[in-house]
Write a sequence for this structure.
């Protein structure tokens, strides 16, 4: 069964008996997990030459037409950013009123705004998932309670594990790093009067048909959906995302957001990525990613016949989570062989035997599996 772990703030007089009190640990993490570690740390500096399976940004992006559109916006840099057109484009893309949209400097900024604007008494984060929501809540002084999903259930959502009196619940869909896609009805079923339900859909546009998305729903009370344009379009360095929520929530978030938080080039990108032609291109990319993910899963299944490698599935995101004994040593050896993968031990609910692999084209996958086979054999010797 999923477990509940109460994580008090550093000022609490009653730290959890299960884990250390919340707050930064000596290693820069929280309660035994480095919540600030992200995949880009694997490919910085000299490591940028490694074949990157650590970062979940689609390879070969941004496309030339998008780069040209962003470049054209540079002529207007003397003016302060005006987000009205981009905001209207996002609203139209999801069939929502403009008052339900807030543009942000990536989805990560949205987590900070939520932590500052929502007066939660009992916030709950469903793990394993992207660690930035919990880090932002802690930084804002909130206690955080973890609901840890069970590996034996394939890390699927167990709604009954979420405390009934939780007034802020955060869940990813599809979830990073497990690649699990939870049913929309099950996620929506977490909504309660007086509860803010935050659904991180940063990778939903990589799911064919965006099945199980709640982005266009207006009938779910307290729903907040976060979206990112950085993954599919290769815009991590530009920082552009958005929030979809009830107008009162959007107003509350705007009040704690700095002036002009989204740059003019990022606004130009948001507008361009919401056009019908861009959405069609994203849909084609999602189909290719699904096919490439199936190829990666098949190759790993072949490897599992001779090594202790288990793939978490069924997977729906542009990445796979695998469990393999000696993962830390294997990850190091893979770097020597030219490949960067994401360690899993910074995610609450996982441990040192987990690795996350970004989906790449079939040729890259085939080269990677050869290297992985070699790394496993050498570290086991």
């Amino acid at each position: 069964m999923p477990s509940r772990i109460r994580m008090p703030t550093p000022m609490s007089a009653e730290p959890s008996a299960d884990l250390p009190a919340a707050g930064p640990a000596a290693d820069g993490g929280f309660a035994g997990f480095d919540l600030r570690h992200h995949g880009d740390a694997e490919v910085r500096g000299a490591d940028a030459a490694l074949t990157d399976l650590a970062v979940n940004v689609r390879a070969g992006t941004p496309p030339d037409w998008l780069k040209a559109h962003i470049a054209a916006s540079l002529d207007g840099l003397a003016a302060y950013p005006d987000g009205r057109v981009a905001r209207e484009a996002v609203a139209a893309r999801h069939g929502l009123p403009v008052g339900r949209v807030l543009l942000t400097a990536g989805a990560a900024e949205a987590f900070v705004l939520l932590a500052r604007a929502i007066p939660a008494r009992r916030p709950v984060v469903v793990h394993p998932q992207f660690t930035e929501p919990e880090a932002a809540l802690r930084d804002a002084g909130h206690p955080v309670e973890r609901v840890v999903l069970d590996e034996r259930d394939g890390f699927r959502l167990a709604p009954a594990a979420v405390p009934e009196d939780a007034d802020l619940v955060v869940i990813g869909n599809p979830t990073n790093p497990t690649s699990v896609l939870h049913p929309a009805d099950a996620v929506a079923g977490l909504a309660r009067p007086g509860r803010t339900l935050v659904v991180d859909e940063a990778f939903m546009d990589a799911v064919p048909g965006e099945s199980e998305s709640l982005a266009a729903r207006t009938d779910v009370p307290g729903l907040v959906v976060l979206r990112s344009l950085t993954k599919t379009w290769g815009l991590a360095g530009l920082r552009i995302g958005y929030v979809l929520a009830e107008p009162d929530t959007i107003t509350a978030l705007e009040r704690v957001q700095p002036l002009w938080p989204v740059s003019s080039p990022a606004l130009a990108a948001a507008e361009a990525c919401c056009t019908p032609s861009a959405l069609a291109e994203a849909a084609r990319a999602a189909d290719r990613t699904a096919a490439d993910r199936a190829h990666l899963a098949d190759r790993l299944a072949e490897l599992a016949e001779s090594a202790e490698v288990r793939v978490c599935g069924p997977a729906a995101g542009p990445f796979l989570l695998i469990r393999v004994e000696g993962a830390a040593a294997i990850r190091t050896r893979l770097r020597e062989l030219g490949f960067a993968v994401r360690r899993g031990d910074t995610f609450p609910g996982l441990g040192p035997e987990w690795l996350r692999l970004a989906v790449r084209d079939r040729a890259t996958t085939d080269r990677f599996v050869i290297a992985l086979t070699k790394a496993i054999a050498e570290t086991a010797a």
